[in-house]
Every structure is written in C-alpha cells, then in structure tokens.
Amino acid sequence: MSPSSLPKPASGSLLRLAAMSVGVAVVVLGLKFLAYLLTGSVALYSDALESVINVVAALAALLALWVAARPADANHPYGHTKAEYLSAVAEGVLIVFAALSILRVAVPGVLNPEPVDAPWVGLGVNLGASLINAVWAGVLLRAGRAARSMALTADGKHVMSDVVTSVGVLVGVALAQLTGWAVLDPALAILVAFNILWSGWGLLSTSVGGLMDAGIDPQTETRLRQVVSLEAEGALEVHDLRTRHSGRLTFIEFHLVVPGEMTVAQSHQICDRLEDAIRAQIEDVQIIIHVEPQEKAKHQGVLVL
C-alpha cells in the first residue's frame, strides 16, 4: 500500500468550521462571564468556567484537523487521521475537568448559599449565549458525522454538553429567585456537573477505542461479510477478516482462498470486484486482500456463496 492509495484527507471546509468554532466559543465565553458579573450566581460562574474549557477544546480540534488533513508520507504511510482521536481524548479530559471545577465551586455554595443579584438580566444574557451554542452544536454534529470526523463530532458533543449545563443553570437560578431558596442555585450546578462527567466519560471511551484500533461496529461488519460472501464468486472462503478505524478512514484486510489452479489474473479480478463492492458500502476505506491457494483454507470465516 502506497501513501497515494489512501483516500484524500479531510477538506478545507472542516478546517474552516473548526476555526469558526473557536470564534463562537470566545463570543459565548464573553457572554457567560458577563452574566456571572451581573448576578454573582455560583451556577452561572460554573457555566462560564466550562466555556473557558470550550475555547481550549475548540483550539485542540482545530489543531487536530489541521494535522489530520496532511496527506500520508514516508514516515506516516497510513496518514495522520488519528490526530482526531487525540483531540477527542483531550476534549473528554477537559469535559471531566470542567465538571470537577463546577463541583469545586458549587459544593461550598450549598453549604453557604447566597442570593444572586439582577438575576433576570443575567439569565437573559446567559440564555442568548446558550441559543448560540445550541445552533452551533447542531452544525458541528451534522458536519462531523457527515465527514466521519471524530474531532468535529467531539467538539459538537462538548458544545452540546455546555448547552445542557446552561439549561440546568438557568432553571436553577430562576427557581432560586422565584422560591427564595438560594441553595437551589449551587444544587442545580452540582447536578449539572454530574451530567457533564457522564458525557465526558462516554467521549473518552469512544476516543480511546479508536486509539486502540477498535473494529467497525457490528452492523457494518455484518454488511461487510454479506458483501464479501456475495461478491467473491470464484473463490472458496474468506478468513482472518480484520478491521480498524483511523479517524474518518476504515482499514479492512482479509485472506481470500481460491482454487489452486486459478491464475493470478483471475484471482486479481475477484479482488477488484470485492474492492468495488466494499467501497460502494463503506466510505473512505482502504482494503488489503491476501490471496491464498486452496490448501490454506481454514473452513471458517466467510463462506463464498
């Protein structure tokens, strides 16, 4: 496999989205800190703290996409797409750190609750920031899933977790103001922090799985086996089927057993047909097929129909 045989790296449109994400994060950060300064709310302060981490996370996603967009070279013949997983791991860690930072501020607030100032103005500013985040999270998630970009998807999930945080904060501060129970402000912040911890753990699990060369999902593997079974006419079996992800790329390799008397040209035609059929089902895929004679059959794996 040569570097030139790999699918082309991510387009510049993904880099532009990542750069815009940094700008959106900075604007939202400014609005949320303004909301905190207007109110003195512990919950709004915790929300603003998470937005600081959002800016760092957006910068990490931009850097990862810039590295991932570099084509394969002699030192990295499989490309640089795993940089996106590193970004996603970093975002997962930052999400967990944000939750711990919120808990550090909110727990003392429960023990010594204080009323907030000018709550409705501050809530209005925070609501505006949350709406911006909600719209932008949707843009990132759609683009990330369409391009199979782990970095953009992780950034979108991070921004969406910020939206969930903000909703919880808004409810908490509003209830504290309406009921006079100041303890609701930091109490809701604690609940939001645990929700963020769960989100961060899920993102870390997915990202680490990619770094550890996790295989494709069961549904896609089932579809792959069906395609191989139907399109390998002339061969006998396929065994040692292995898959892995690297960013948006999928790597597939397997052994194809053919009759001993089959010529190289004939077996090559089967390989070409298989590759075309697999690429029609799975995007951005790199396929390696090892052809073996009949005596190498293991009588297991995928039986050719």
Automatic annotation (TrEMBL):
Its main location: membrane. GO terms for biological process: intracellular zinc ion homeostasis. GO terms for cellular component: plasma membrane. The keyword Lipid metabolism does not apply. Pfam families: Cation_efflux, ZT_dimer. It is a multi-pass membrane protein. Residues 220-293 form the Cation efflux protein cytoplasmic domain. This is Cation diffusion facilitator family transporter. It comes from Deinococcus reticulitermitis.
